Structure formats: structure tokens, C-alpha cells
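Quick start: read one record
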Amino acid sequence: MLCFSSHRQITINIMPVNESITSSGPTTLVHAMQILQVTARGGHRGASVDDYLNELSFSRPTLYRLLKGLKQQGFLRSSPIRGRYLLGYELLVLGAQAGNGAGLRDLARPRLLTLAQRWGDSFYLFARDGVNAVCLEVQNGAYPVGSFVRATGGRLPLGVGQASIALLAYLGADERSEILNHNAERLIDEYSIAIADIEAEIAHQLKHGYARGVEGSLLPEYSGLAIPILDHSGHPLGAMSCSMLKSRMTKRHKLDVLQGMQEEVAAMVNQAHGLLYLD
């Protein structure tokens, strides 16, 4: 089950298709995924046939065949702008289920809203996605703040932000080391975060039961807190996180927010009634 342990602009990151599978894997599937990714990069304008042909390496007949199939399955739809395509609503249906692993999102959403309304800060639900942390839900209070992610679906390399620390802390040492080594260059180059600082914050999490995140230079005016959401074996299912202005992080407010998150996670445990066990 799920248990609590004491112990800027919105950017949408589209994960690239693994090119290594194109030669040995199902080529049609790879091409279809590439079409969806090009469409997603087009944002609200979507993508045109020329956009697909300019970015992708397959023929016009193949493109038309795949566009037709993706539309029939609901993964693409026609844009109001003639000749352009948008992501289809079937992806929204699938995404809602993908973002609700172990029932976390459904359980967390009203609790994040309660916290945001009560304390006024921004509250998030994160889960691990490979070497990244993905935001499954966000609720803003009366004092919303900037964050590395400000929308559901935003991804960060594990190591960035307090939720990442809470997720990393309860992985095995070898697995955690492998993730940090993989992300090390990006953490330094994009976020000015060193592995040694992450490890220090992980030690803080394990000692005090909550994460603070590594203070970098990109969001110096903000601070945050996070607590892990663990399954019955102590493995992290997710993390509940809060971001706020540093000026609001008084000792009293910090204790109140931590207690509030602890209470909401505990309530999630009671509500779950064992439904969040991982096999």
C-alpha cells in the first residue's frame, strides 16, 4: 500500500524516439511515434504535411497512410487551419490513465487542491519516469510561484527540485548512482546542480523525512519542500511537493505545510484501503 515515511514559461519536453530501434524494431510504429512528436512540437498550430516531410525521413505515400491511420484511431485530428494536424483526444484519454499510475493522481488531486487553498502555495504530485521526474498534477493557491515545471506532464531530470530528491532517496544505491551519472552533465549544464549537492540533500531527506531540493541559480527567489509516497516495501510511488517564495518560508509556515502534506498523504493511505499495493 501507499505509506508515508518520516524518514518560466511552460516548457513541454518531448522525449525523442530511440533511434536504435528503427533498424530492428517495428518501423511503422516508430514512424507513427515520430509523427506524433512532430505534431506535439507544433503546439496549438499543429503540423502540416511539409512539416512532417521536412523533419522525417520517410516518403510522402507512407506519411499519408500513417496520417490516415492515426486519425482513424483518434490519435490525430484535423486542425481548423486547413492542411494541418493536431494531436487527437484519444491521447488525452490514454495520458490521463498513464498519469494515474497506482491511482495516485485521482487520490492526490483533491488533496493538493485542499493544501493550495489552505496555505496559498503551489502543490505538485511527481512520479519517476526513467531518469526523469514527471509532474502528474499541480494545484496553485493564492500565491502561485514560478517552477521548473508549471504544468501537468512537465519533466525534469532526477536531481532537479525537491520532489526529485524525495524520489531518489528511496532507490537502491546502485540504481540511484546510475541515474545521477546519466544526468550529471545535464544537471550541471542546464541547472548548475552538482551531484555532491544532490547527495547531501538525499542524506537530509533520509535523516529528517522531507526534501528541500538543491538551491541552484535558476530560481533563486523560490524554495520548496517534498515528502515521499512509498509503497508497502518502501519503494517510492511518487512525491508530494510544495513550492513557495523564500519570503514565505518562515519556520511556522514550513512546519504547517509539512504537517499538512503529511496529513494528506496519510489520508491517501486510509482512502486507498490497500488498492495501491504494487505487485
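The chain has two domains: 19-94, 100-272.
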